[in-house]
Predict the 3D structure of the following.
Amino acid sequence: MTEAELPEADRPSRLARPAFVARFGGVFEHSPWIAEGAVDAGLTADHDTAEGLHAAMVAVMRAAGDPAKLALIRAHPDLAGKLAAAGRLTAESTGEQASAGLDRLTDDERATFTRLNDAYKARFGFPFIIAVKGKTKDEIRAAFEARLGHDAAAEFAEALRQVERIALLRLKDLLP
């Protein structure tokens, strides 16, 4: 569907605040404050595409202080972690992790991911975040291992870049 095919009433710039937050509040994992900030800042027709709306939402995220950014990062689940095993991920996270095969790990692979999750959180204080769409479980594991060598500031910045990438991919699923 192209922007021209998107019904006028469904365009982000035309949605009332409650409808906008209901539709886009989950784009940034468990952080509807970003959607609220974007709609409150005012949206125009330039924000009716995935890329345009992403720019508005990322501006809100980037303007937030480090405590809010850390809370955003911490709102993400562990990859192939306990929430996934218990079926307690958001629909978006479930689909994303399944697309990379993280829902079909062997016992040894699951143990490796658990070990990496634990080591990463012990080192940085937040979960490992990577936009898994289009990646294999081996690529994800390799990135996990490489990023454990980063310093805290570099990894905080990388986690936010990955959060932004995940949000863009989610918006592309919702908008032209």
User: Anything to note?
Assistant: Residues 49 and 137 are 30 Å apart (CA to CA). Residues 77-159 form a domain with the UraD-like fold (CATH 1.10.3330.10). The mean pLDDT is 90.
